[in-house]
Amino acid sequence: MNQKGLLMVISGPSGTGKGTLVKHLLKRNNRIQLSVSATTRNPRPGEVDGVNYFFLKEAEFKEKLAQDEFLEHAEVYGNYYGTPKAFVEDQLNKGQSVLLEIDIVGALQIREKFEEVVFLFVIPPSLKELQRRIKTRGTETQEQMAKRMDSALEEIKELKQYDYVILNDQIHKATRLIESIVEAELASVKRSQSYWLDLFGVGR
Ligand code: ADP
Ligand code: 5GP
């Protein structure tokens, strides 16, 4: 019997560095999988269908929603986003940990559906640095950028709904912090006791 993988949600204002952090994390850990979301937004330059997102037309998204194919979904900045259900369940059962990079609306839906989820919230060192990062990324129009900066403070207010704060000042430090959290959570008695008791045949 495998110990079941850890389900983790990672949120934070746009431009904080979630995508960058996740990339580093996946490169260093083959026991962590990223759930690829579906979205109705247009691909950014360099984004690949099936890798960064499954890019869908609105009608396709709604059809999948009607078929109950999403674990959670939300409308963010005028587009729909959703987490495909089958991949997540399959990976957790195989003992892989799964990361969902989703917004607070989706995170709250996940909290309702699963008992033992670890909620991570990524914050930038300052608002000024957040603005600089969004500008440097250069994928948003002026108007989209203003919308994301306005939302940032509202999103940071939701910190209290999460379990851990990940300060993304230096990418390597933030990556190591997440790795430590994953290790500690997997070793917690509440999460691992049935695995160990079964292994030693001493029942529960
Ligand atoms: P998000 O996924 O949260 O929207 P991204 O990962 O796209 O954010 O990062 C936004 C920009 O900030 C990118 O240009 C990225 O290279 C940069 N960035 C991410 N983390 C850091 C960091 N720790 N220090 C400096 N720049 C960073
Ligand atoms: P972006 O368009 O910058 O890739 O993502 C915009 C926002 O949508 C981010 O806050 C991101 O976390 C969120 N998001 C991405 N995928 C999903 C998803 O599957 N579900 C939900 N609820 N939010 C998502």
Present the secondary structure layout.
Blueprint: E1 7-11, H1 18-28, E2 32-34, E3 38-39, E4 54-55, H2 58-66, E5 70-76, E6 79-84, H3 85-93, E7 97-101, H4 104-113, E8 117-123, H5 127-137, H6 142-157, E9 164-167, H7 171-187, H8 189-199
Parallel strand pairs: 1-7, 1-8, 2-7, 3-4, 8-9
Antiparallel strand pairs: 3-6, 5-6
Helix pairs in contact: 1-7
The protein binds adenosine-5'-diphosphate (ADP) and guanosine-5'-monophosphate.
Structural overview:
- The chain is of the alpha/beta class and 204 residues long.
- It is 46% helix and 20% strand.
- Strands 2-7-1-8-9 form a 5-stranded parallel beta sheet, sandwiched between helices. A 4-stranded mixed beta sheet has the order 4-3-6-5.
- The longest helix is centred in the C-terminal third of the chain and has 17 residues.
- 27% of the residues are buried.
- The model has no long low-confidence stretch (mean pLDDT 93).
- The structure holds adenosine-5'-diphosphate and guanosine-5'-monophosphate.
- Guanosine-5'-monophosphate binds next to β5, β6 and α4.
- The site of guanosine-5'-monophosphate has 15 residues, from β5, β6 and α4.
Number of strands: 9
Helix content: 40-55%
Residue stretches low in confidence (pLDDT < 50, at least 5 long) are none
What distance lies between the first and last C-alpha atoms, to the nearest angstrom? 15 Å
> Order of helices and strands, N to C?
EHEEEHEEHEHEHHEHH
Architecture (CATH level 2) name of the domain at 7-35 and 97-199: 3-Layer(aba) Sandwich
The CATH homologous superfamily of the domain at 7-35 and 97-199: P-loop containing nucleotide triphosphate hydrolases
CATH overall fold name of the domain at 7-35 and 97-199: Rossmann fold
